[in-house]
């Protein structure tokens, strides 16, 4: 292989052979060439050599440039291919990321919809106790929007829960859920009951989820079941107990009546026997009055009659309802009961129940119910009597308002008084048998329990009470309306 220098030398030699002959002739032979011509010839030769060398270097550089260009193109091609692969992967990852993000948003919206559609109140709490989530049930319960609730404390947004700070702190820092059942909120008819559960959160987001369930209806049903069980148990025992008491009680009443008859001055037989015994019957009567014997006999009679009335109430309570039921106009039954109240009850009820204190607002146009009229009147009279007695005990002139109205398929009778109201610790017991706040000898404690039994068991209705101390009491009786035809 020839070197670049050898090639250049050969090329130069060839080029010299092509020079004019006069350039190669000996200056001594012809004396034809001048010094200028020789100089020109040498310069020309040098220029040719220089040009040839430049050409060779140029070709070498051109070759190197071409080689570098090919190498660069190869690198660019490879890197472009790599970049295209990376771009394709990036595009695929972007598509997957967008799909994942869309799925995440869809899942979040789904969970958000579930949380907001739940009937339970769901409240999310951060580790410091501030609210992070507030679902629609919480909004409906408190009338506070999620925007206003987030960032606030649960004490400020839901003060009725009365969650002690130490309990909340323990729940946030614990591992197991904490539950609290039947927490009472409000008073009277506005009293509600809730179950509270606090679920601690662990992981990236520490905090807790508070779940609140309204169990008021459940508590009411359970209380009603307990009440019915008490009434059924009492009903089973009342009949046997009443019969056991009736026999000796009848003997006591008969003996008292015999004593009153045998000492009466109006019976001739008493005078005859007294004369036979040399006894002045009038002096005996005077002695009885002076020594209080007559009053004692009257007290015995009143007590025995009261005991007999208690036994009768017990028998009525245990009775399954012998009175036949039929379609009755409730407004007329109420008017009749009010007329009885105006004349005063036969058993000595409140004398304040006169026309100026009994107000009728019978607005129900449809008032036909399937009922036993005397039982409904018994309930109405009992509630009027209780209202009047409560007002009298408080020194308040009684005012009893009786109204009727309809809601869907129910007739509602409201009996409201202006009395002192019923304390919260008493109102939950008023329908219990033998429960009374009256003094000894002033009440049997069966009136409201019998009324409750009549309405709920005999007439498939309900009876409720709403009372606030100092604001009076209202009993509401719900009876199913008789369907047309």
Automatic annotation (TrEMBL):
Q: Which CDD domains match?
A: HisKA (cd00082), PAS (cd00130)
**Alphabetical UniProt keywords:** ATP-binding, Kinase, Nucleotide-binding, Phosphoprotein, Transferase, Two-component regulatory system
SUPFAM superfamilies on file: ATPase domain of HSP90 chaperone/DNA topoisomerase II/histidine kinase (SSF55874), Homodimeric domain of signal transducing histidine kinase (SSF47384), PYP-like sensor domain (PAS domain) (SSF55785)
Q: Name one GO biological process term.
A: regulation of DNA-templated transcription
Query: Which InterPro entries does the UniProt entry name for this protein?
Result: HATPase_C_sf, HATPase_dom, His_kinase_dom, HisK_dim/P_dom, HisK_dim/P_sf, PAS, PAS-like_dom_sf, PAS_fold
User: What EC class does the entry list?
Assistant: transferase
Q: Specify the domain of life of the species encoding this protein.
A: Bacteria
Single GO molecular function: phosphorelay sensor kinase activity
Domain named Histidine kinase: which ranges? 240-483
**PAS domain spans which residues?**
107-159
Answer whether the UniProt record assigns the keyword Kinase to this protein.
Answer: yes
Catalyzes what?
A: ATP + protein L-histidine = ADP + protein N-phospho-L-histidine
Enzyme Commission identifier(s): 2.7.13.3
State a single Pfam family of this protein. Answer: PAS
Protein name, UniProt field = histidine kinase
Q: Which organism is it from?
A: Marinibactrum halimedae
């Amino acid at each position: 292989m020839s070197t670049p220098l050898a090639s250049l030398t050969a090329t130069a030699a060839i080029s010299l052979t092509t020079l004019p002959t006069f350039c190669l002739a000996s200056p001594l032979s012809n004396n034809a060439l001048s010094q200028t011509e020789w100089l020109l010839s040498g310069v020309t030769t040098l220029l040719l050599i220089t040009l040839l060398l430049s050409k060779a270097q140029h070709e070498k550089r051109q070759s190197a440039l071409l080689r570098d260009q090919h190498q660069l193109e190869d690198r660019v091609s490879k890197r472009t291919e790599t970049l295209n692969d990376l771009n394709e992967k990036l595009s695929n990852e972007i598509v997957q990321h967008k799909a994942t993000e869309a799925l995440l948003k869809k899942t979040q919206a789904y969970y958000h919809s579930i949380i907001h559609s739940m009937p339970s109140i769901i409240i999310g709490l951060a580790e410091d106790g501030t609210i992070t989530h507030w679902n629609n049930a919480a909004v409906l319960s408190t009338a506070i929007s999620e925007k206003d609730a987030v960032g606030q404390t649960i004490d400020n947004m839901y003060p009725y829960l009365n969650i002690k700070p130490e309990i909340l702190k323990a729940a946030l820092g614990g591992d197991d859920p904490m539950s609290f059942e039947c927490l009472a909120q409000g008073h009277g008819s506005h009293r509600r009951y809730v179950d509270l559960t606090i679920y601690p959160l662990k992981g990236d987001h520490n905090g807790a989820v508070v779940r609140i369930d309204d169990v008021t209806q459940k508590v009411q049903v359970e209380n009603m079941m307990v009440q019915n069980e008490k009434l059924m148990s009492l009903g089973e025992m009342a009949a046997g107990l009443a019969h056991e008491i009736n026999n000796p009680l009848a003997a006591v009443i008969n003996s008292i009546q015999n004593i009153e008859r045998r000492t009466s001055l109006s019976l001739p037989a008493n005078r005859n026997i007294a004369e036979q015994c040399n006894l002045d019957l009038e002096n005996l009567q005077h002695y009885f009055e002076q020594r209080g014997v007559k009053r004692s006999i009257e007290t015995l009679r009143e007590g025995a009659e009261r005991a007999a009335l208690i036994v009768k109430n017990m028998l009525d309570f245990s009775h399954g309802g012998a009175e036949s039921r039929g379609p009755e106009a409730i407004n007329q039954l109420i008017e009749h009961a009010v007329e009885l109240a105006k004349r005063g009850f036969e058993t000595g009820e409140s004398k304040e129940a006169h026309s100026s204190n009994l107000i009728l607002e019978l607005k129900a146009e449809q008032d036909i119910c399937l009922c036993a009229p005397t039982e409904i009147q018994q309930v109405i009279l009992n509630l009027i009597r209780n209202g009047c007695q409560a007002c009298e005990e408080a020194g308040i002139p009684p005012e009893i308002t009786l109204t009727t109205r309809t809601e869907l398929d129910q007739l509602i009778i409201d009996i409201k008084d202006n009395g002192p109201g019923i304390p919260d610790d008493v109102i939950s017991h008023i329908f219990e048998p033998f429960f009374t706040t009256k003094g000894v000898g002033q009440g049997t404690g069966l009136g409201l329990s019998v009324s409750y039994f009549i309405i709920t068991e005999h007439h498939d209705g309900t009876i409720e009470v709403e009372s606030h101390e100092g604001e009076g009491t209202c009993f509401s009786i719900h009876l199913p309306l008789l369907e047309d035809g």
